[in-house]
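Late entry, evening session. Most of the bench is empty. Finally got around to the prediction I had been postponing all week. Sequence below, unchanged from the version circulated by S.P.
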Amino acid sequence: MQAFEDWNLKVKKTFNATSNEVVLTLTEAGKSLGLSKDNMKLYVDKHNLTKVPIARSVHRYLLLKSEIDEIARNG
């Protein structure tokens, strides 16, 4: 039986395989900053972080790992 893979993680995997820029899901980014997914959404909007849109979805997006790493370093 195949293990379940979250849709956002599938999109992230495909994006990272075809791009020079590494991305994170909201959940992953939130964990690295100690925030929940919902709090991370608010943080992204408040700090105008770059949203990498996912095709065919208005509300889903990925975040640039480089921006999250910078925030974590300067935290």
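Two things to note before I forget:
The chain has a mean pLDDT of 87.
The first strand starts at residue 23 and ends at 24.
Will write this up properly tomorrow.
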